[in-house]
Design brief:
binds NADP nicotinamide-adenine-dinucleotide phosphate; about 15% strand; about 230 residues; 7 strands; Rossmann fold; alpha/beta
Length: about 230
């Protein structure tokens, strides 16, 4: 039984992570932002029905919310941190139509915020017995795999996350931390859309298998939900 913190748990892959972790008996700290545009009620219902789930407020756009967050966790040990919250940004923003503000916001949520959160929670993570850090990235952040072009904002935010987590994996290796970058596949969520190739259950059960099996040899790797390594 581990204590696992999952960000962006209001819907999509984050909610699925929480459902699977709660079902297998882990202690789960789920974060969601109050005042979200889309409130399904599913997380609250799960929280009411489970004694191993806490839901805490966290807006990944807000540095102050991130800096204050460790107080909410209140000295608890965290074994596994799953940085899942993410945004795609403006759809179809082509070269010639790019705007700085929307780009900066996607960079903040997808790259800067997970790094700041991990930094803020390091004392809690040091108290944990597993010291696993999972970051949900995307194959669209692979520079080597980019044959389609476009998607400047989303692609660059995930490439930047990949670069930052690679450094983290090097810097925290001596303390026994394992840092993994996970591509969930193309998944049927609000972000992935209805035509995506796999459902959230398949993606998340695969990613949990990768996280559970990850050791020092896997730290700093960029892998898909099925364990296949992805070129940078
Ligand atoms: N679906 C795919 O095919 C796919 C493929 C590759 C990578 N990914 C990655 O997988 C992760 C999860 O994606 P998904 O498909 O589950 O997307 P989703 O259905 O759009 O859900 C995104 C989640 O992130 C949360 N979030 C967004 N901005 C936030 C903020 N500022 N503060 C706190 N939470 C915030 C959302 O909360 P609200 O409900 O409050 O907005 C929601 O819970 C993301 O990092 C995404 O980039 C997804």
């Amino acid at each position: 039984m581990a204590t696992v913190l999952v960000t962006g748990a209001n819907r999509g892959l984050g909610l699925e992570f929480v459902e699977q972790l709660v079902a297998r008996g882990d202690v789960v700290i789920a974060t969601a932002r109050r005042g979200s545009r889309i409130v399904t009620g599913a997380l609250d219902a799960l929280c009411d029905a489970s004694d191993n789930l806490d839901v805490l407020n966290l807006d990944m756009r807000d540095d102050a919310s991130i800096a204050a967050f460790p107080r909410e966790v209140d000295g608890r040990a965290i074994d596994i941190l799953i940085n899942n919250a993410g945004v795609y940004g403006p759809r179809g923003a082509a070269f010639g139509e790019l705007g700085g503000e929307p780009w900066a916001e996607v960079m903040r949520v997808n790259c800067i915020a997970p790094m700041l959160l991990t930094q803020a929670l390091l004392p809690n993570l040091r108290l944990g017995s597993q010291r696993k850090l999972a970051f949900i990235t995307s194959k669209m952040g692979s520079v080597a795999d980019n044959r389609g072009g476009g998607s400047y904002i989303y692609r660059s935010s995930k490439s930047a996350l990949n670069a930052a987590v690679k450094s983290l994996s090097v810097d925290l290796a001596d303390e026994g931390f394992v840092s993994v970058l996970l591509h969930p596949g193309w998944v049927q969520t609000d972000m992935g859309g209805p035509n995506a190739l796999i459902d959230a259950n398949t993606s998340v059960s695969g990613m949990l298998r990768v996280i559970d099996g990850a050791g020092q040899a896997e730290s700093g790797k960029f892998v898909a939900y099925d364990g296949a390594e992805i070129p940078w």
